[in-house]
Amino acid sequence: MKINFKLKNLNSALKIFLKSFLIYTSIFFIIIVFIISAAGCSKKVDIKTLLKSKLSGEDEMNAAVDVVDNFFKYLQSDSLNEAFNLISSKDKSNHNFDDFKKEFRNVTKIVEVKINWVEVKNNIANVGIDLTDSYDNEEKVYKDLVVSLVKEEDGSWKINFWD
Q1: 26 to each of 35, 36, 38, 116, 123, how far by Cα in Å?
Q2: What is the pLDDT of residues 72-94, one digit of tens each?
Q3: CA dihedral (153, 156, 157, 158) positive or negative
Q4: What span, in angstroms and rounded, lies between the C-alpha atoms of 88 and 108?
Q5: Under a CB-based contact definition with an 8 Å cutoff, are residues 147 and 127 in contact?
Q6: Strands 138-151 and 109-121
Q7: Cβ atoms within 10 A of the Cβ of 89, count?
Q8: What CATH number does the domain containing 21 carry?
Q9: Which of 65, 83, 90, 135 qualifies as a cystine partner to 74, CB 3.0-4.6 A?
Q10: Range of 38's domain?
């Protein structure tokens, strides 16, 4: 009878231990899952923020490239007025449209502009180009020219022409 009593007490103690173990293990796993999911959420926010900044950076690069591309297209089509509109306000405050026209009096014909790279840092952008011009039916390529741009107060990119 004594043996049966000890086994019965041992069996009850084992059941209590197993129940307690399962409860504490479950709580532990719930806490771990909560911590991992919370960390996962913060990583999702970080990734979202990273992607958003990357995409907005690409938007800025594309906008700067568009200004350079349009500037040279205007020059190619002799639309100096439109090209002058893409000049920075600082340059326009120091020079007028006549100064701008004088710069192009003896310029050869631009045949092609190839944009190679762009770099944007805060409110400054640099665009690397290769320019092909023509003079007396001969073409010449100027490689690795850098066009500098500044971001105006209205958020638009403008070319630093005289600086």
Answers
A1: 14, 15, 18, 59, 54
A2: 999 999 999 999 999 999 999 99
A3: negative
A4: 24
A5: yes
A6: unpaired
A7: 13
A8: 3.10.450.100
A9: 83
A10: 2-159
